[in-house]
Amino acid sequence: MFPPLLPSRILVVSAGPSGLVFCRNLTTHRKFANVTLYERRDDVGGVWSAFHTFWYLDKSAEDPYSGESTDSNLPRWPSPAYPSCIGNVLPEHLSFSQFPFPTIKDPNQLFPTLVETHNYLHEFAQPFVHTGKIQLNIEVTCVEEKCDGCWKVEIRDWNQVRGELKVEEWDTVRVLVIGNANSDGSLLYLALCSLRPHSDAADSRSSQTNGSPDKINAHLQDGTTLTGIDFVHIPRGYEPYPDFVHVLNNTSLPSAACSAGPKSRTLIQLVDQNPHPESGTCVPSLHRHILYAYNPTVAFIGSPMLFTPFTVNNVSSLWLSIVWSHTIPLLISPHTIPLLISPPTPVPTLTEKLLQFEKDQLELIRNWRESVDNPSALYSYGVLGALEEEYANRLGKEIV
User: What highest taxon heads this organism's lineage (predicted)?
Assistant: First the structure.
């Protein structure tokens, strides 16, 4: 059987928008007393971080794994957003409930800058930093599922000398939350900062030139050939890629894996590194894009690509906190478009039932892709697209 869904201690990984609002909703709205958020940077923000320094480009800095942890050699994870970034979402959709976005300084600009968005998140997080709910400079390097359904967490504490490696047994912690991953802009910024040609990214439609091993020829579908290219940049878009999360490789409950023998206890990386076009790069086996069906003590806020991530993740994290507090039962919505054609029905706690949401959504995506020629990558399970409003409305109605 699953461990109880009511957690006594909750770990949130990453202080991006998803992690911050979930930390707030758990602490403020649902009154969970023991909530901890680990963030590897020395400030919050996630993809909206305004920090752009690289420790490994600083020739005067030592390798942080071999020297003492000082301001000069702490690892610096670059911001996924380029410094001059201006968003394309209006401020009212970049706001969490009960914490409105401040007025944009430039009266001629509709959208906030990277710095304005980061400052908003920084101010939102301050009460939780002051109370110790948010702990900075702590990097989560590995999360492993245990046979009892709980989690082993490895961290590097960069507040200590040399980034002290620690192992924590979260035997009563029932939650791990991970937000969305970097955008295309982040990889472009990294490519520009690296200042060297990338010839290893070429696929069957590109080739190295005969004249120089550092140049690329790109062969387009219309027959055009672009020659003498210095960079090949393959965008990833918004993708969840928590490669540090490992789960038990079995098709039954975690406790059953332990009783079946040692071979069934092998750990695998949760996210498929070779995704199918219908699913895209996504966190698999999630009920409602949130709860991991094989062990619902782990959850993911912000796993699908969203047009309004602040708003939707505010709703989804509140839904999750209410479900975990046993205020509402775990429900399942209809699995086909439109989502509101029939009332919700209670879901048994069987893994197969929790997996039904994903199965039906993948079938829907399959039908979509078969109905069009050369379907866009946005036609995938990991992108809500036209379903976003209905998805948020369904969760919101259950909350109300």
Answer: Eukaryota
Residue 290, phi-psi category: left (phi > 0), alpha (psi -120 to 50), beta (remainder): alpha
Q: How many CA atoms lie within 13 A of 32 on its CB side?
A: 30
196: helix, strand or coil: coil
* Nearest partner of 46 among 102, 132, 121, 155, judged by Cα: 121
* Distance (Å, whole) CA 324 – CA 177: 13
Q: Within 10 Å of residue 300's Cβ, how many Cβ atoms?
A: 25
**One-character DSSP codes across 111-126:** S-BHHHHHHHHHHHHH
Report the run of H or E that residue 24 belongs to, with start and end.
helix 17-24
> DSSP label at 305?
B
Helix, strand, coil share (%) of the chain residues, nearest 5 = 30, 20, 55
What is the C-alpha separation between 204 and 219, in angstroms, rounded? 9
Nearest CA among 184, 398, 355 for reference residue 253 = 355
Residue the block writes with tokens 């209670």: 346
Rounded Cα gap, residues 190 and 216, in angstroms: 19
Model pLDDT for residues 233-289, shown as the tens digit of each residue = 444 445 566 788 888 886 544 444 455 444 456 888 887 656 676 676 788 889 999
Element (H, E) at 323: helix 309-324
> Can the peptide bond before residue 304 be classed as cis, meaning omega within 30 degrees of 0?
no
- Residue of 390, 8, 17 whose CA lies nearest to 238: 17
As a whole number of angstroms, the distance between CA 36 and CA 176 comes to: 10
pTM > 0.85: yes or no: no
Report d(CA 325, CA 6) in Å as an integer.
6
Could you tell me which of 13, 46, 264, 39 has the C-alpha nearest to residue 151? 13
- The beta strands (E) that lie in the chain are given as 9-13, 35-39, 134-136, 138-145, 151-157, 164-170, 173-177, 206-208, 216-219, 225-229, 245-248, 267-269, 286-287, 291-292, 331-332, 345-346
> pLDDT tens across 132-146, in order?
999 999 999 999 998
